[in-house]
Design goal:
It is built from 15 helices and 16 strands. The protein is of the alpha/beta class. An 8-stranded parallel beta sheet has the order 6-7-8-9-10-11-12-13. Strands 3-2-1-4 form a 4-stranded mixed beta sheet. Helix 8 packs parallel to helix 9 and helix 13 crosses helix 15. It is globular and about 65 Å long. The chain starts with 7 loop residues before the first helix and ends with a strand. The structure holds zinc ion. The site of zinc ion has 6 residues, from loops.
């Protein structure tokens, strides 16, 4: 996405929000100076807290060391990490902890009730096929406000520290390409403050409804991934469904991200089929993902380990739901075998679910609680789920972020260290996207 300055109006709005939260304790004259600075290509922040190492007792990490720094940002990148200069003229971060900006790696920005009135989901629609029939009825109504609501949803994600999302977008025979066009408009309106990659998602099946032709059209646009959905239960054939997805991805040089809810043999065969295809076409390695992939949660240990090993070798990532009812995904095993694990909010409030908070830091917290990651070191590692694997310290406590030339995509958090931020789901005080203050 292109880098452009914030509009004057937006910055004043943001600056006043920061003022009201006590972040920019400056008088009006200084605010205007800061306005000029924030609109320029260079931004300087002082009193920024960064992690610098671990403290050990008898070999165990018992605390995280931090120091205050001055950070210079130029042309959307961190240009210098300097010893703190508390008297220099700069935006005062007041000792807030700087972390890499968060990334929501699975959300549906195109269909949401968010931005409208409260609505719980209905008990009536349960199976995926029931939900498809329901969507065919409600999508024309949702489309009337979907651009506006996507923008509201993006603002929610920003307020929770995310400046990037991988959004699935319905490509189906009801909305045809309209869901995509409406979402592209919202992203265009937000392009200076938020980045995204899109998955063309055949939510109503490729062949169960006549969506394949629309998927071919969507693949010609600037979407990033070809999506898919439960090939056995919806389209009635793993091979027919996945061959279409793989061929379309290869033809248009896209990645793949498939919603797989199916368990048992159908789920397992789908995973194995996809692994084989990716191994046949190594260009797909590192850009193929299985979203949910609940079948992994129900495998016996030896089979799970075999599958985790195969997924890691094929460089197929798992975009996991945390949690999903009483289904607990085997995330520790996936990490152990080197499978890329990501997460997202999926639904914030819509006809599928109502419990989304917009925070992927909260997802990292849930992971810590579910799998018992409670020590200082373990909690600090959980942050990678929110940042898509960028961590300030490596496991030995060496600072690896931020470095000069890193993208200036950062959050300022009211926490003393990553471990506290994860354990307490600490408040997000500011978000900087490509060097511009956007929240
Ligand atoms: Zn989804």
């Amino acid at each position: 996405m292109a880098t452009q300055s914030l509009s004057r109006k937006d910055f004043i709005k943001n600056a006043s929000m920061m003022l009201s939260s006590g972040m920019l304790a400056v008088d009006n004259d200084n605010l205007w100076q800061d306005l000029d600075e924030a609109q320029a290509s260079k931004l300087t922040l002082k009193n920024v807290r960064l992690e610098t190492g671990f403290e050990y007792e008898e070999g165990e990490v018992v605390a995280t060391k931090t120091e205050l720094f001055t950070i210079e940002i130029t042309d959307g990148k961190i240009s210098a990490v300097l010893p703190n200069q508390p008297t220099t003229k700069a935006i005062d971060a007041k000792g807030l902890l700087m972390l890499p900006a968060f990334r929501d790696m699975h959300i549906h920005l195109d269909k949401t009730y968010y931005g409208g009135s409260w609505k719980a989901r209905s008990k009536k629609n349960r199976t995926v096929k029931d939900m498809i029939a329901f969507e065919q009825k409600v999508i024309p109504e949702l489309l009337k406000t979907s651009t506006y609501r996507a923008e509201k949803l993006i603002e929610l994600l920003q307020s929770r520290g995310s400046n990037f999302a991988r959004s699935h977008v319905n490509i189906d025979s009801t909305s045809k390409l309209d869901s995509l066009y409406h979402l592209q408009q919202a992203l265009q309106n937000k392009k200076d403050s938020f980045g995204a990659e899109l998955v063309a998602f055949p939510q109503h099946g490729l062949f169960y409804t006549e969506s394949a032709q629309w998927m071919k059209e969507a693949a010609k646009t600037n979407i990033d991934f070809i999506g898919g959905l439960d090939p056995t239960s919806i389209d009635g054939s793993i091979q027919k469904s996945l061959d279409f997805v793989v061929q379309l991805a290869l033809e248009h040089q896209k990645g793949i991200d498939i919603h797989l809810h199916e368990g048992g043999e159908a789920g397992l065969k789908t995973v194995e089929f996809l692994i084989d295809r990716v191994n046949e076409h190594p260009v797909l390695k590192g850009k193929t993902y299985l979203s949910h992939c609940f079948v992994l949660a129900r495998l016996e240990k030896p089979k799970l380990e075999e599958m985790a090993d195969k997924l890691a070798h094929a460089k197929i990532g798992v975009v996991s739901t945390i949690p999903f009812g009483n289904t607990i995904m085997p995330i520790p095993t996936l990490y152990q075998y080197g499978v890329e694990v990501m997460t997202g909010n999926d639904s914030i409030i819509d006809h599928w679910n109502t419990f989304g908070t917009g925070s992927v830091l909260y997802k990292a917290n849930l992971m810590a609680q579910l799998y018992g990651y409670s020590s200082e070191l373990e909690l600090s590692r959980c942050l990678k789920l929110a940042t898509r694997n960028v961590l300030p310290l490596d496991e030995h406590g060496n600072r690896q972020w931020p470095k000069a030339n890193d993208k200036a995509d950062v959050v300022l958090v009211e926490a003393s260290c990553s471990a506290e931020a994860v354990a307490r789901v600490s408040p997000i005080k500011s978000l900087i996207h490509q060097g511009k203050v956007v929240y």
